[in-house]
Design a protein that fits this description.
By secondary structure, the chain is an alpha/beta fold. About 40% of the residues lie in helices and about 15% in strands. It has 22 helices and 19 strands. It has a six-stranded parallel β-sheet, with helices on both faces. The protein has a six-stranded parallel β-sheet with strand order 15-14-16-17-19-18, sandwiched between helices. α3 (about 65-80) packs parallel to α4, α3 (about 65-80) packs across α18 and α12 packs parallel to α14. The radius of gyration is 25 Å and the shape is globular. The termini are far apart. Bound molecules: adenosine-5'-diphosphate, ligand TZD and magnesium ion.
Length: about 575
């Protein structure tokens, strides 16, 4: 008889009749707050916990790198208004994941990173224990909140605190450290069950003061050339109908920040999306709705009309006045603030210049017609624009597909080329403009919404997360990855200024066949060299609902340094070849 290979492994039932472990309690605590999905990468000391959680009905998506699991959790949080959960092992796994938790905090996405950590005594005495690292203290300055759970009876409290910190006020990333002894601690089942509860009112409304609403309405009513700026906070709030009503009942033109695109359709008659410079220079009153006056808006300086006044609707009082005086802050949650402003609207008479909207509309029309000329030349080898001429057609046919996007030229050109028609359908590298969110965000978006996803990736951007394409494949997600291969960071024609013959700092490989990666993981893969081939492949890929990869061959000289933000680079005294 063949010996049973598992027979010698002592089997400890995680939930025996009378006793349970910290791992079981953590599972139940997460279920109590409504967590049904975790993204992560296991090993000591969290493997058993992941098995137990999966067994208890929490979906577990195992990744190849923690950063991508974290990007998935962050995207899940942004799209669902509930924290995405990332599970990591100690030391490097924790640090790999922390990059995503930090990025989520910067972007105001709710997520919770749960990391197993080693036992405390040898860490505190720095005695060199297995994967020993003082994780809690490392996480603290980088996340919205950080807690450690040392005892099984505290697990529920730790989970509730993490949940509340992630979703209430300005959302963000939360770190929850749980020690190995605590995960393995045994408790009587009845005592453990007695610790479990469902918290109430986890994200209470924050009502703005009536004074602030009246001040804002008065300023709005006085505006001759107002504009409304919608940011990803407005998209996150999931009050799409109310935002639409606010825009349409005031009749004020609006501009949507990158991830707010689609909150109102990009082709809405009041869209000022192509009139950025004009309203910056001319608007006398600017209404910021869930958008920060950060570098993406020249921090309120540069082209902005120095005499313009700002109204800012935000949940975070500390966001007000950070770069420029905000004449009328409305601090509250967006739903309450927009409700209050809509309720007040009939009592005010707006005094918008009757020429303002027609001016925005006629100029937009001219600009849009000019912009469309970029798609006329169907150059082969393709440029970013000729590739996008194909992509925009297919995306227009599939408005309910979520678009994930990162790169430099690939990011900026795609953002401008592809109109979004539905809210929360564009996920990109956001406030920090980081690379390395693509595969994670694509997986998170597909899992959180059950919708199809198309990720448009620069060849460099894809490299940061490429191996997690295999995660989309393993979970059979309807994700199509489109790689714009121009052979480099910004382009593939950088020249080494030295004589060693190495590739230039920006040079990758314009002949790389990314489609072979698709073959390696059983995806449907395409290699395309013309806009027609790309249009056909992308149409077929989306329709298949399978995991697909399209390697798009661009010319190596397509793209310029840093896309649209080259001005942020320090100037050199002599030209460098990018
Ligand atoms: P964008 O990059 O699109 O301009 P930001 O991320 O800079 O957007 O700004 C989003 C803003 O929205 C943040 O200042 C955040 O505090 C705010 N915010 C997020 N959720 C809410 C909410 N529910 N109510 C009000 N403000 C919110
Ligand atoms: N590393 C990280 C984590 N984030 C970054 N933003 C960068 C490096 C610098 N960087 C950019 O800002 S864009 C970019 C890098 C490396 C890649 C641009 O190349 P691409 O796109 O192939 O993705 P294009 O189409 O060639 O411009
Ligand atoms: Mg590139």
């Amino acid at each position: 008889m063949t010996p049973d290979p598992l027979a010698s492994i002592p089997h400890t039932d995680p939930s025996t009749a009378n006793q349970v472990t910290g791992m079981w309690i953590l599972t139940q605590a997460l279920k109590k707050v409504g967590i049904d999905t975790m993204y992560g990468l296991v090993g000591i000391p969290v493997t058993e916990f992941a098995y137990i959680a999966q067994g208890e009905g929490i979906r577990f998506l195992g990744f190849r790198h923690e950063q991508q699991a974290g990007m998935a959790a962050a995207t899940h949080g942004f799209l669902t208004k509930t924290p995405g959960v990332l599970l990591t092992v100690s030391s490097l796994g924790f640090l790999n994941g922390l990059t995503a938790t930090t990025n989520a905090t910067v972007n105001c996405y709710p997520m919770i990173q749960i990391s197993g950590s080693s036992e405390r005594p040898p860490i505190d005495l720095m005695q060199g224990t297995y994967e020993g690292l003082d994780q809690l203290n490392i996480a603290k300055p980088l996340v919205k909140a950080a807690y450690r759970i040392n005892r099984p009876e505290d697990i529920m409290t730790g989970v509730v605190r993490a949940y509340r910190a992630a979703v209430s006020g300005r959302p963000g990333g939360v770190y929850l450290d749980i020690t190995t002894p605590c995960l393995g601690a045994v408790m009587d089942r009845a005592a453990a069950e007695a610790t479990l509860y469902t918290p109430v009112d986890t994200c209470p409304p924050m009502i703005p003061s009536q004074t602030s609403v009246a001040r804002a309405m008065q300023l709005l009513a006085s505006a001759k050339k107002p504009v409304i700026l919608l940011g990803k906070g407005a998209a996150y709030a999931q009050i799409d109908d109310k935002i639409k009503k606010f825009v349409e009942s005031t009749g004020i033109p609006f501009y949507q920040m990158s991830m707010a695109k689609g909150l109102l359709p990009d082709n809405h008659p009041l869209s000022a999306n192509s009139m950025r410079s004009a309203f910056m220079e001319q608007s006398d009153v600017v209404v910021l709705v869930g958008a920060r006056l950060n570098w993406l808006l020249s921090r309120g300086h540069g082209k902005w009309n120095p005499a313009g006044k700002f109204i800012q609707l935000d949940i975070d009082p500390e966001e007000i006045d950070i770069n420029r005086q905000i004449a009328a802050p409305v601090v509250g949650d967006l739903e309450s603030s927009i409700d209050a402003m809509l309720a007040a609207l009939p009592s005010y008479k707006l005094s918008m210049d009757p020429e303002w909207v027609p001016y925005i509309q006629s100029q937009s029309k001219l600009k849009n017609e000019k912009f469309m000329q970029r798609f006329v030349a169907q150059t082969v080898p393709m440029t970013h624009w000729s590739a996008l001429s194909a992509v925009r057609k297919v995306m227009a046919q599939n408005p309910d597909v979520i678009l994930v996007n990162e790169g430099a030229n690939t990011l900026d050109d795609t953002r401008n080329a592809i109109d979004m028609m539905l809210p929360r359908h564009r996920i990109d590298c956001a406030t920090w403009a980081i690379m390395g969110m693509g595969m994670g965000s694509a997986v998170g978006a597909a899992v959180a919404t059950s919708k199809s996803v198309v990720a448009i990736e620069g060849d460099s951007a894809f490299g940061f997360s490429g191996m997690d394409f295999s995660t989309a494949c393993r979970f059979k997600l309807p994700v199509t990855v489109v790689i714009f291969n121009n052979g480099g960071i910004y382009n593939g024609i950088g020249q080494n200024l030295g004589k060693d013959g190495d590739p230039a700092p920006t040079t990758l490989n314009v002949n790389a066949r990314y489609d072979k990666l698709g073959d390696a993981f059983g995806a449907q893969a395409y290699y395309v060299t013309t806009p027609d081939e790309l249009e056909k492949a992308l149409t077929e890929a989306i329709a298949s609902k399978k995991t697909c990869l399209i390697d798009v061959q661009l010319a190596a000289d397509s793209g310029k340094e840093s896309g649209h933000i080259g001005y942020l680079n320090p100037a050199t005294l002599f030209p460098v070849n990018v």
